[in-house]
Every structure is written in C-alpha cells, then in structure tokens.
Write a structure and sequence with these properties.
heterodimer; A: alpha+beta; OB fold (Dihydrolipoamide Acetyltransferase, E2P); Phenylalanyl-tRNA Synthetase, Chain B, domain 3; Phenylalanyl-tRNA Synthetase, Chain B, domain 1; 5 domains; 7-stranded mixed sheet; 6-stranded antiparallel sheet; 17 helices; elongated; B: alpha+beta; BirA Bifunctional Protein, domain 2; 2 domains; two-stranded antiparallel ribbon; rod-shaped
C-alpha cells in the first residue's frame, strides 16, 4: 500500500523529512520505502501558457501556438487539438522527451512551419482514455513546473509493506495514529459537514441481513441528484500520489475514504436497485453475477452476495456488480459501508480468484464500529465534489453490537518478556498514544481494545505494542545470559558431517539436488519404493518427492557432461521419502548417501597414469569410508538389477542397505550419463557405537610369505578369501590379493591368484616350522574345497 | 703374444686411457671402441677359435669379465660427469608436484557448518525433523489459524494425502517441545519448500536454520544478545544489527533482523539496494498459543525463537546473484568453494 506524505499531514503535524519518517515507520513495524509513482519521462513535460494561437497557413486542422514555458522566449509549437486556445495552461513535452512507446520529441517542421515540442492529451500521458483534446491544466499552475511536481502536488509517495496483522494501518488515519504514538504528537480525525435533507433514508431503502454471522453490520446512505464529473486537482493529486488512477468524482471519493480510513466502501446507482431493498445473503449453487470487471462469475454458497429485491448487485467485500455500476449519467447513489466476516471474504476471494483493495482489507479484519464514520465521510465528500443532497440518517442493520475487548496487562510481565525496565507511566503513555485506553492499578492495566485493532486479544499482544513503540532497538542487550544446565538430545547430523567431510577430503564434490521430480522419474532403485505425489505441483517436472537420489544425481551428471565436464566425482547426502501408511504424515523419510563417478577417477600426470572408474573403485571408496569412519565392514553380494551392469547388493550385517553398479542408460533424456553409482541408506546410529580400544603393537617380527595358486576361474574371490581366513590360524595378521592372472601359460578355465600373507605373533617370534605349518594348512583348505594347486612361491 | 696376453694388454691400455680424465665425448668414444658391436673386445672374442679347446671357456669368461669391468668404469665416469655438469637436470625439481585433488563441500553445507559451529559455542544442540509434515505441526500448533491470511505468507505444497512439505523448520520446534521438557536450547537446520515460481531470487526449496530457547526468565533482550553475538562472529566485529517489529503467528512480539551491509558497511550499495541493511531473518518470543499446543505453561516458561535462510546468507557472502546456481551443481561452480 502506498501512502502520501502530504496526505498524512492532514491528520498529524509532522515536520520530519520523508526519509526520516520512513525510517521511523520501519522501526515501528510499518516497513516503509519512498517510491516514485510517476514515470520518469514526466520530468521533461512542463506547464506552458498558450500566449497566442494562429491558424497554420497550410493545414486546416493545425494551429501555430506561441507557448510560454516560464523560461526564455515563448516557443512556437504546432498543435492539432481542436480545444487549444490562447490563455490556457497546457502540458508541453519539451524537445528530448522520450515516451514509453519510444516516440521522441524533436524539433520538426510540420507543413513548413517549425514546432518546438508537443502539447499532450491525457491519453498521451496515460492519465486517462481522454483523447478528445489536449489536457488543460489549472489556471494558476506554475509555468515550467514538471508534470511529476504538478500532478503530485510536490508530494512524496511512501510504500508500506504491511504484515497481515496490521489491518488498522491500511489507511492514512491508522498510520498517523502509530506516528502519533511514536512521536508523542496528537492525531486529528477529519472534520466535515453533513447536511441532510428532510427525507428519511429509511423511506427509500431497507436492509435485510440473512446471515448475521457473515455480515454482522450493513449501513447505507442515499445521495440524490449528484453530477458525475472529473475530480478537482487536489483529489487527483492525492490519488496520483498513492498510485490510484482518477475515474470520476464519485468513485474517487469512495477510494479516497477507503485510503483515509482503511474501510472499504461501495457506491451503487440507485436506479438499478430494485424493490427499495438490500438483502445480504449467501449465493445459491451455480448462481451467476457479472462483476465490474465485465466477467461473468459462477458462484456457490461460499460467496456472500449483496442483492436487491430481485437480483445480486455485488459480491460482498470483493467487487461490485456491473448491473448497478455508477455511470456518467448516474444521479442518485446508494452508499454501502459494511462489516463482513474475514474468513467469508477470504473464501469468496479464493473461489473467484479475485483480490481487490476491499477484499484485502476485509480478509485482514476491518472495524465494525468505524462504519458510520466512514459512511458519513463518504456522503459528505461526494456532495463536496459532485453536489446533491444526502437523505436523512443512515439505514444501519447491526443486530448485535460488537463490543471492544477488555484485556489486562501486567507491567512486570511486560518487562519480564522484553527484558526491560519500562516504567508504568511510560507504558501508560504508549498505550494512550495508540488509543488503547485503560485503567491501571498496582502495575496492572485494564485495557479497552478498540475494534479497529482486531490483532490485539491477549496480554502478549499488548506487550508487543509496548515493545514496538518503545523500540526494539532500545531494548537493552544484557552483558550476561544463561545457558541451561542440560544438553539436548543429539541428532545424527554429526555422522552425516563425518561422511561428507571424508568424501570431500578424498576428492569428491558435494551436490544439493532438487528433491522434486516428475511422477514418472522414479526408476526402481531399491525395489520397494512408492513415491509421494504433490497435490499442487509447481510444474509437471516437479510433481513428486524423490524416492531415491538417483534421478537427481543423474540430472546433475547429465548437466555437467553436456558441458564437457565428464570426469565426475559427486556425492549427495539427503532425505528421500516413500509412502508409509503407518506414519501420521503418510510418509517414511530416510537419509541416503549417493555417490557417482564417471570418466577418469584420477587424471594422467607426468609421473603417473590415469585411472578409469570401475565398480571396484566404488567398492573401495564405500568400504573404506565405513571402515575408517565407523569401524564397520560392509558386505558385497552379486545381484541382478535392471539399472546396472555389474550389480552389487551392499549389506551391513544382515541388513541390505544399498546397491552399487555400473549405470545402464536410464532414459533417452539422460543418454550421456555413464558411470558407476552407489546409493546406501544412511543408518542413523552409525558411529555412536564405535568404541576404540588400544591394541598393543607386537614387538616380534612379522614374516611375509606369498601364496600363488591355480584355481578354477569360476570360483569367486569372496569364497577363496573366506577359505583362507577360515584355515589361517591366529598368526595370519594380514592378507592381500596382489595379483590375478588368466591367459598365456595358464590352463584354460583356470586362474592364478597371488596373495601376500603376513604372519606375526604378539608374544614370541614365530619359527619357520610354525609358519610352514600355517601356510600348508591354508593351501590344503583351498585344495580340498576348490581343487586348487600351488603354482610356485614367488 | 698369446691371446691371453692380449686381454691383459687391452685392460691396461683401457686403464691408462681412463686415468687421463677423458671428457664425456671421449668416454662415449671409449665405450664404442671397447664395447661396441665392432669393438676391440668383440674382435678379440672372435679369435676364440685359435685357442686350444680346453682353454676356450677360460678365455671367454676373461673377456666377459673385462667387458663388464670396462662397462662399469665407463658408466661410473659418465655419471660423475652428469652430476658435475648437469646437476640441475639430473632431477628437475621444477616439474609439477604430484597433487591430490581435494573435493568440496556445497556452499549451502559450508554456510550451515559455520552457523552450527557458532551456535554450538553458544550452547545450542542440533535437532532435526522430517521434510514432510502434518498440517497440525506445520501450521496449527504454530498458531496459524485455519483460513488466516498468515497461511498465504508461505505458499505451501500439499501432498495428495493432505500432508504438507514443511514451509519452515518450525515443526521441529513443535516436535522438540513435545518430546522434551524445558530447558530446550537447540538449533534446527533443514530443507523447506515453498510453492513459488522459480527465478533468480526464488527457488521451490531452500534451507533454514531456526533456533529455540525455552527456559525460565528468557527475555527478548537475551534474544538480541544471542543474535548479536552470532552476527559479530559470522559477519565480523563491526556489524550493526537492526530489529524491526514484524508479524509471525508463532512469535509475539515478532521481529525482523537486519545487519548492516557487509559490502558497503551501511552506506548503501548494489547488494543492499541502497538501504545499507540486509534482511537476514525473523525472530521473536514464542507465542503463548504455541506453548499451549505443546503443553508448556507459558506463565512458568518463556522462550525465544529465530530463523534464517541459509541460501540467502550464502548468496550474500559468496556474491552469488542467482539462487538457481546452488541447485544446478555445475562442478565448475562447486569447485570454487
């Protein structure tokens, strides 16, 4: 909402610079910035006085004018408008002016006569649709003044970004009230005359409320014999300053009172109100109304209607109907000032997908007891601008008076919450400034909260008001504060941090993927996932929650590979979710770790060869991460998987926690993505159980022996290793596969494996004989189980 | 002269030549002369047929031994020359070192880490909760009345089952207060979602860190002190803080917090849009209605809560002007952090 600096001065005597005023308002919670409401090019359009007007020698419709721009000699300007006349003040676009459509004013010859500018119509300045002639300005307008100053009356426009609780500040009076409290000044409400005719309003119109819950109050007035016309300059300047376009004197008056009081008002053309009656009722199912914007709208019973005896004439609190609109030939008006329930207006506005200045205010809560004032103010203003007579009295349907709330406030509590030592007298002064009138006894205030502050219902709300006006920035900062003697429950974030740090330290780049995917982007990674679908997605591409990290990772890989970044080492640690009927959210969320490698794991350097990625690299990364960080050994089992070649299932003990493999093509859009992928569920209690106990280092020598065997090629390494470990005895402290060979000099169907075995004892030096015995036992185990044979010790 | 004597002669001839400090080129020539395919030793060897049968083996090994000796001695001298005259090129230490490529934390992660570290020092634990929440925990328990315009402040994604993607990490506060008795002093980092059109300044998801302290005698002054300490640590000793009254359903009083622009120091620049201030988050005192929803007596306990957007602050800190860069994960972007 925009407010005008000059307009504010009608209600409070402020002499602060607009910038300082905006800062004060911001500090009090009404976020304010100074804005320009008029376009920049208005600065080169100035007030000129038509000194003389001659007919153009060669063109019937053109006039040659001499126009005084308040500086130097009068300029010769050619004008084609029929209404231009000597003695007028007009808006002149000077040479160099560039209009928004790109048209530039230059010195030009029109049929042989020089023209030094252009006289503008209202439409050319986008001020109205009027293009019948040039815009005639005020007689006493200052020559040479630019249109920004002329139209705004040298005003400054301030934009307020209000929080939804502050409905009271949605008008100039409300803002002035806050300023009065802040600056310790008096706020003046507008004073106006109200001359009524002897005809009682109730003879002309009656009001019937069918649903007093939705409409607790409806007041109406009649103004007869008005003359619709243009508003005077002062009114146009006021509205201009806050960015509202002038329509006519009656509509402008209603907008003015809205922006003054914050209370929405509506004007009907009385001749279209049938049966002398206003009925406020819920719409019927599929009932229709054409609103002021010319759109026919189908309604249901969530919408409240203003009707006459026969038909709906407005959607309550949102927008008037076309059928009762004020037109140029309107003479008699019905004025509405009413209070509608916030939720009803909100539902209606949502249903119609229509947000108006009126609905914005009703949704946030208006003042039921401010209705008569706003109505009288409007009637008075209309007569001032458009003439006419106000009939006697308001017709005010208000069956159940809404009383102000009584709320108590303890000064001690106020200081306890804010951490302040504000005196009782100061609190009292602050409350009075906000019209929160009260009694006080022993530091306890009984506050009568006016109905224009629907946001204040509790002690804590009053405490905020005191804090707000006292100033949050004035609340002292204590030199010490307490920390509770208790440590709250730990969460697994430390475990995740360790994994992230480890992977980053060995060369991986962490990614944060978008967790929203298209509904068909959930390839079955774990086999059991059912994705959660959004009811109101932003787009088809982001209509479900990720059930695995794979698609997000693949998209990132694709993005990078398409940009010639194909050696990738990426990881993500994030939540995935699947349908779970047993949870109160209907979702099961788990933390997953995904790693993707592609291209070269290590690039070629002058002293070392490049290393291409493969599943064994990934296996090593994963198993060393778990072993080094958490002391846990992962188990890897071959499996079949649609998404991978060389698929591996990953187990932690008995529990299958993940998959690993060489990615096949996921889909046509991600053709470029080839690499090795793994995804594991991040077990939440990793690491917390790790208990490191120091093991004494043996002082006795370790003896190395190499074991080289020939064995059937189909026997998996895992089984061979198992057999070695089973038969090893206590002295084998280390074994490592360091060569594997098939081919020349090896019988077909066989392979040769070479292990480095290290034997050591903690308490004594092992003898050759003992080592030989262990070595033979290991070999025998392999011979018995797989018919292996010793190749030769190397 | 027997062929055996010839071997001895060649050996002493070679020794003499070596004693005369031959240059590198002389050494290469000597190598050719004695050891080359057409060298003198090979020539001599060919005469093995002239040796009587039973001494041929002896003759062969004698020549072989001389070959080896000459080879070793020449190589030794050549090496001496290299270290003397080519000491730089022997090992070119200006060759690049063998580097281990480091990985990177995502800028959201590293910003979050900085936050956590500071709040850890101020005695805050870390609490977390799920991204999918009930409407009760995301709104109702946090004093968002049904059909209140406040619910419009946060455009919400709904699931088909009526759960929501949390619009803030505040439901973790609700969980925490239901699970534990005060005192509670935790920060709550996590991913949140907003149903907003995506542009340079907005994304459909982002990350927050919220903080909560519930205990006896917790005041707004203490909230200011905590946030001031945080800001001085994170933004630097000279940062100024500004608190502006605001509205959040779950706090009362509520405040926005601004810090003086770190780029211009408050004079006004492009980053702070000429205001001198940067908005970093919201805060306030826990609303009594929230305490009521989680069965904490608001007369006995008071509390403060605050929340900050991680992306927003990361973007300010690293000079990132488009939030989408954070979720594109271009490695050329990631490797800068």
């Amino acid at each position: 909402m925009n407010i005008s600096y000059n307009w504010l001065k009608e209600y409070i005597d402020i002499d602060l610079e607009p910038e300082v005023l905006a800062a004060k308002l911001t500090d009090a919670g009404l976020e304010a910035v100074i804005v320009e409401t008029l376009p920049e090019f208005f600065k080169s359009i100035v007030v000129g006085h038509v000194v003389s007007k001659e007919k153009h020698p060669d063109a019937d419709k053109l006039s040659v004018c001499m126009i005084d721009l308040g500086r130097e000699e009068p300029k010769q300007i050619i004008c084609g408008a029929p209404n231009i006349a000597a003695g007028q003040n007009v808006a002149v676009a000077t040479i160099g002016t560039t209009f928004p459509d790109g048209m530039k004013i230059k010195k030009a010859k029109l049929r042989g006569v020089v023209s030094n500018g252009m006289v503008c119509s209202e439409r050319e300045l986008d001020l109205s649709q009027d293009h019948s002639g040039i815009m005639v300005l005020d007689e006493d307008a200052e020559l040479g003044m630019d249109m920004v100053s002329y139209l705004s009356g040298n005003d400054v426009s301030i934009e307020l970004d209000l929080t939804p609780d502050r409905s009271d500040a949605l008008g100039h009076i409300g803002v002035a009230r806050d300023l009065a409290a802040l600056l310790g000044l008096e706020m003046r409400k507008p004073v106006f005359e109200l001359n009524e005719s002897s005809t009682p309003t109730s003879d002309i119109i009656s009001v019937e409320l069918e649903d007093t819950q939705s409409c607790p109050r409806y007041a109406a007035r009649i103004v007869k014999n008005v003359k619709i016309g243009a508003s005077p300059v002062w009114m146009r300047q006021r509205l201009q300053a806050i960015g509202i376009r002038s329509i006519n004197n009656v509509v402008d008056a209603a907008n003015y009172v809205l922006m003054e009081t914050g209370h929405p008002l509506h004007t009907f053309d009385l001749r279209y109100i049938e049966g002398g009656k206003i009925v406020v009722r819920k719409a019927g199912d599929k009932e229709k109304i054409t609103t002021l914007d010319g759109k026919e709208r189908e309604l249901d019973d969530s919408v409240l209607l203003i009707c006459d005896a026969k038909k709906p004439v407005a959607v309550a609190g949102i927008m008037g109907g076309e059928n009762s609109e004020v037109k140029d030939d309107t003479t008699d008006l019905l004025l509405e000032s009413a209070f509608f329930d916030a939720v009803v207006v909100r539902r209606g506005a949502k249903k119609l997908q229509l947000a108006t200045d009126a609905s914005h205010r009703f949704e946030r809560g208006t003042d039921p007891n401010g209705i008569p004032f706003a109505l009288d103010r409007l009637a008075s203003l209309i007569v001032e601008l458009a003439g006419g007579e106000i009939t006697q009295g308001q017709v005010d349907a208000y069956p159940q008076t809404i009383e102000p709330l009584e709320v108590s406030l303890r000064a001690q509590r106020c200081n306890a919450i804010l951490g302040t030592e504000i005196e009782t007298a100061t609190i009292s002064k602050i409350l009075n400034g906000l019209e929160l009138f009260h009694t006080e006894d022993g530091g306890v205030f009984q506050v009568t909260v006016p109905t224009f502050r629907p946001d204040i219902t509790r002690e804590i709300d009053l405490i905020e008001e005191v804090g707000r006006i006292f100033g949050y920035n004035s609340i002292p900062v204590p030199q010490h504060f307490s920390i509770a003697n208790k440590i709250n429950k730990k969460t697994p974030d430390q475990i995740r941090e360790r994994i992230i740090d480890h992977l980053a330290s060995i060369g991986f780049n962490q990614i944060y993927g978008n967790g929203l995917l298209a509904v068909d982007e959930h390839p079955s990674v774990f086999g059991d996932e059912e994705a959660l679908i959004l009811a109101n997605p932003l787009s088809r591409d982001m209509a479900s929650m990720r059930s695995s990290l794979l698609m997000g990772m693949a998209k990132v890989a694709d993005y990078n590979i398409n940009r010639r970044q194909s050696d990738l080492k990426l990881f993500e640690l994030g939540n995935v979710s699947t349908v779970d009927m047993d949870s109160d959210t209907g979702a099961c969320e788990t933390s997953h770790l995904a790693i993707f490698i592609s291209g070269e794991l290590q690039s070629k350097q002058w002293s070392q060869e490049s290393v291409e990625v493969d599943v064994f690299q990934m296996k090593g990364i994963l198993s060393s991460t778990y072993r080094d960080l958490f002391g846990l050994d992962l188990l890897f089992e071959p499996m079949e998987h649609d998404l991978f070649t060389e698929s591996i299932a990953i187990y932690l003990g008995e529990e299958k926690i993940g998959i690993l493999g060489n990615l096949k093509m996921i889909n046509q859009n991600l053709k470029s993505v080839r690499g090795v992928y793994t995804e594991v569920r991040n077990s939440e209690n990793l690491g917390l159980s790790r208990n490191i106990q120091y093991q004494k280092v043996s002082v006795y020598p370790a003896v190395e022996r190499d074991l080289s065997i020939l064995i059937d090629a189909i026997v998996p390494f895992g089984k061979i290793n198992e057999t070695i470990q089973k038969n090893a005895g206590k002295s084998l402290v280390y074994s490592r596969l360091y060569d594997i060979y098939e081919g020349k000099s090896i019988a077909s169907g066989k392979k040769s494996l070479t292990f480095r075995l290290v034997f050591q004892n903690k308490t004594r030096t092992l003898t050759e004989k003992e080592i030989d015995k262990d070595f033979r036992r290991i070999l025998k185990g392999l011979e018995d189980a797989y018919n292996a044979t010793l190749r030769e010790a190397i | 002269m027997s062929l055996f004597n010839k071997v001895d002669e060649l050996r002493s001839e070679f020794k003499q030549a070596l004693a005369s400090s031959p240059a590198l080129s002389d050494l290469e020539r000597m190598k050719q002369k004695y050891l080359g395919r057409k060298g003198v030793l090979n020539d001599l060897f060919k005469k093995i047929v002239e040796v009587e049968n039973d001494r041929r083996g002896e003759f062969g090994s004698l020549i072989n031994q001389l070959k080896l000796d000459i080879h070793d001695l020449i190589e030794e001298r050549i090496n001496d020359h290299r270290t003397d005259t080519l000491s730089i090129s022997a090992v070119d230490v200006t060759l690049p070192g063998v580097e281990y490529e480091r990985g990177t934390l995502h800028p959201i992660e590293s910003t979050l880490r900085d936050f956590k570290q500071i709040f850890h020092r101020l005695g805050f634990a870390v609490a977390e909760g799920p991204e999918i929440e009930t409407q009760w925990r995301n709104f109702d328990a946090l004093n968002f009345p049904p059909e209140h315009p406040a619910r419009d402040m946060q455009d919400t994604f709904f699931l088909e089952n009526d759960s929501v993607l949390r619009t803030h990490t505040s439901p973790v506060q609700v969980r925490l207060m239901l699970e534990e008795k005060p005192p509670i002093r935790s920060i709550m980092p996590g991913r949140v979602y907003r149903n907003e059109a995506i542009d340079a300044g907005h994304y459909c998801l982002f990350h927050q860190v919220e903080g909560l302290y519930v205990d006896k005698n917790v005041t707004m002054g203490e909230l200011k002190a905590t946030l001031e300490l945080f800001c001085r640590e994170y933004f630097g000793e000279n940062v100024k803080l500004r608190f502006r009254p605001s509205f959040f359903p779950f706090t009362e009083p509520s405040s926005e917090m601004d810090v003086s622009c770190f780029l211009c120091g408050g004079k006004g620049c492009r980053v702070c849009k000429q205001t001198g201030w940067l908005e970093i988050g919201g805060c306030g005192m826990v609303d009594p209605n929230v305490f009521k929803a989680v069965n904490i007596d608001s007369e006995e306990y008071t509390g403060y809560a605050f929340g900050m957007g991680i992306e927003r602050i990361a973007m300010m800190k690293y000079g990132i002007t488009d939030i989408r860069l954070l979720f594109e994960n271009d490695v050329r972007f990631l490797k800068q952090f």
